[in-house]
């Protein structure tokens, strides 16, 4: 019953100040975000808005200078398997083939050899890389690498998947396919996803909620609940409505900054 | 062939011919080119030395006879006949012995210097100062410390192989992509476990380069190392033959070192290709 009330991830008045060349840089100020289990949330904003910082704090790679980061109400003190991260540059282990990259997490948790094999084969199948199980990352296309990266965190029973512009380096066709597949996997598994993007279209296509952020200092500007039915049609008038709304929100902010 | 049947007869024949032409020429070409240059050198050597009794350098054919005599005997029947395997074995054991010792010391030391700041600050400056000292400069000191004999030779080989392995190991463990630590950490691999599952495999290509360079240096240094008054070894017979003006033995020794140095490098490369199949620059 606790799950119904306690958010899986909660950030309370979170701020982050970096010291760079002796100067303090405020990357994030007063961010409040509450993520419920099973939600798909997109963080969007111009560069320097702190969206990646926020994601990295959720992962536990960076500590907040102010405020609290909580998972299931417990403070996040460092990275852990419950919060899987998918990086834009994949972060695959080049010396491990696809199967062993996916088995890396289970192996870290000292599962038995047969279990690891069984788990990795299941997730290789899930992301459609059965024929590439024994191939090394440098022999894969960008899209395939990102499939492996996604399978890797799913194979490790991540409760929440943090994605940092995961499809940003891919060509348009591959990106669309992976977006479709991600929504498919998400709706089938009841995963929670926190997804950073700078593409308005991607955010509307994927998210239950879009969190718009703005720079200087980085902060959360507004949240929108995208109530479009799934699967979403990016050519529909409703989709375009959202696109217009969000882009005016993002651009009004730019104009204000320039002015 | 059935799939080709739809093509015209001429097309098929042409395709077959080009495919055959393509198959052998690219393979043979590098071999021919690689062999052509030494043949030219041999010819120059031959015409410059053959039939000139005053020449200090023996002609290639004399060297070839000497090489056969060294290996199998039955030609000159002197003190050197049929002794090649003794000298080769002595040199090979020193090269690999010194190399193995260098590996045993340089690998852990390099990893510690690379990953532990305190050890880096403590040891690295000293090593940076010692490193430019040529191995030959260590020769007199080695003879004082280790005495005349094979131990000095092994020590010099050790030194020659040590620095390349050390420097490349340090470089390898220090230049692991930070992203991979994050990836490992979020997958549940943290702390000391990261050393074996991330640092070591990531540093392997670099460590391997160091090993290859180190083994190459070990072969370079062996001649100097065997100048320390040992009786056997390829370096020893080269120095001895020099004093006896047996230049054909000197050249024979050089050829044997060249060939075995090459073979040992090929062996390392073979192992490397197996081990580093994942690396785009090695595999």
Helix coverage percent of chain B: over 70%
CA radius of gyration of chain A:
19 Å
Name of the CATH first level of the largest domain in chain B: Mainly Alpha
CATH C-level label of the largest domain in chain A: Alpha Beta
Give the class of chain A from helix and strand content and strand pairing.
alpha/beta
- Counting DSSP E segments of at least 2 residues, the number of strands of chain A comes to 10
Number of E-type strands of chain B: 0
Number of domain units of chain A: 2
Order of helices and strands of chain B: HHHHHHHHHH
| Largest sheet: spatial strand order of chain A | 6-7-8-3-9-10
The largest interface is: A-B, 29 and 22 residues
Q: Could you say what the CATH architecture of the largest domain in chain B is?
A: Orthogonal Bundle
Number of DSSP helical runs of chain A: 9
Folded structure, characterized:
The complex is a heterodimer of chains A (259) and B (283). Chain A has nine helices and ten strands. The longest helix of chain A is centred in the C-terminal third of the chain and has 22 residues, at 237-258. In chain A, the strands form two sheets. Chain A has a six-stranded mixed sheet with strand order 6-7-8-3-9-10, sandwiched between helices. Chain A has a four-stranded antiparallel sheet with strand order 2-1-4-5, covered by helices on one side. Chain A is globular, with a radius of gyration of 19 Å. In chain A, helix 5 (113-126) crosses helix 6 (142-155) and helix 8 (200-206) packs across helix 9. Chain A folds into two domains: 2-82 and 159-247, 3-Layer(aba) Sandwich (Rossmann fold), CATH 3.40.50.300; 93-157, no CATH class. Chain A starts with a helix and ends with a helix. By secondary structure, chain A is of the alpha/beta class. Chain B starts with 8 loop residues before the first helix and ends in an 8-residue tail after the last helix. Chain B folds into two domains: 30-46 and 59-82, no CATH class; 87-275, MetI-like (MetI-like fold, Orthogonal Bundle). Chain B is mainly α and 283 residues long. The longest helix of chain B has 41 residues, at 9-49. Helices cover 76% and strands 0% of the residues of chain B. The radius of gyration of chain B is 26 Å and the shape is globular. At the A-B interface, strand 6 and helix 4 of A face helix 7 and helix 8 of B.
């Amino acid at each position: 019953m606790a799950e119904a009330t306690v958010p899986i991830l909660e950030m309370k008045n979170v701020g982050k100040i970096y010291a760079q060349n002796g100067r303090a840089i405020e990357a994030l100020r007063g961010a409040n975000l509450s993520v419920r289990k099973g939600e798909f949330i997109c963080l969007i904003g111009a560069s320097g808005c702190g969206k990646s910082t926020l994601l990295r704090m959720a992962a536990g790679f960076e500590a907040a200078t102010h405020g609290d980061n909580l998972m299931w109400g417990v403070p996040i003190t460092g990275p852990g398997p419950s919060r899987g991260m998918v990086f834009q540059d994949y972060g695959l282990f080049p010396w491990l083939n696809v199967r062993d990259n996916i088995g890396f997490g289970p192996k870290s948790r000292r599962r038995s050899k047969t279990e690891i094999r069984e788990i990795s084969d299941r997730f290789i199948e899930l992301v459609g890389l059965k024929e590439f199980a024994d191939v090394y990352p440098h022999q894969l296309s960008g899209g395939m690498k990102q499939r492996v990266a996604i399978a890797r965190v799913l194979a490790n029973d991540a409760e929440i998947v943090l994605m940092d512009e995961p499809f940003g380096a891919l060509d348009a066709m591959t990106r669309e396919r992976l977006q479709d597949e991600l929504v498919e996997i998400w709706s089938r598994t009841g995963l929670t996803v926190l997804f950073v993007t700078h593409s308005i279209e991607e955010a509307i296509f994927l998210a239950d909620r879009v969190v718009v952020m703005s720079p200087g200092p980085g902060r959360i500007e507004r949240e929108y609940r995208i109530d479009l039915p799934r699967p979403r049609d990016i050519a529909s008038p409703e989709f375009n409505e959202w696109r217009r709304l969000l882009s005016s929100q993002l651009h009004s902010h730019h104009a204000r900054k320039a002015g | 062939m059935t799939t080709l049947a739809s093509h015209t007869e001429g097309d098929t024949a042409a395709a077959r011919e080009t495919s055959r032409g393509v198959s052998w020429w690219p393979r043979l070409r590098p071999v021919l080119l690689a062999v052509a240059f030494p043949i030219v050198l041999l010819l120059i050597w031959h015409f410059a030395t053959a039939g000139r009794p005053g020449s200090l350098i023996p002609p290639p054919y004399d060297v070839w006879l000497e090489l056969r005599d060294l290996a199998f005997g039955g030609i000159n029947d002197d003190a050197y006949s049929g002794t090649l395997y003794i000298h080769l074995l002595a040199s090979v054991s020193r090269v690999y012995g010194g190399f193995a010792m260098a590996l045993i010391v340089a690998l852990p030391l390099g990893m510690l210097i690379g990953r532990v700041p305190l050890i880096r600050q403590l040891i690295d400056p000293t090593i940076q100062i010692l490193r430019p000292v040529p191995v030959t400069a260590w020769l007199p000191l080695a003879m004082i410390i280790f005495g005349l004999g094979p131990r000095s030779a092994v020590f010099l080989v050790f030194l020659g192989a040590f620095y390349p392995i050390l420097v490349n190991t340090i470089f390898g463990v220090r230049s692991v992509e930070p992203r991979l630590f994050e990836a490992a950490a979020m997958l549940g691999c943290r702390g000391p476990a990261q050393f074996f599952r991330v640092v070591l495999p990531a540093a392997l290509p670099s460590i391997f380069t160091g090993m290859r360079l180190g083994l190459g240096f070990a072969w370079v240094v062996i001649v100097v190392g065997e100048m320390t008054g040992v009786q056997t070894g390829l370096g020893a017979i080269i120095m001895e033959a020099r004093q006896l003006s047996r230049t054909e033995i000197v050249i024979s020794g050089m050829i044997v070192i060249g060939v075995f140095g090459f073979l040992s490098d090929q062996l390392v490369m073979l192992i490397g290709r197996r081990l580093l199949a994942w690396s785009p620059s090695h595999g």
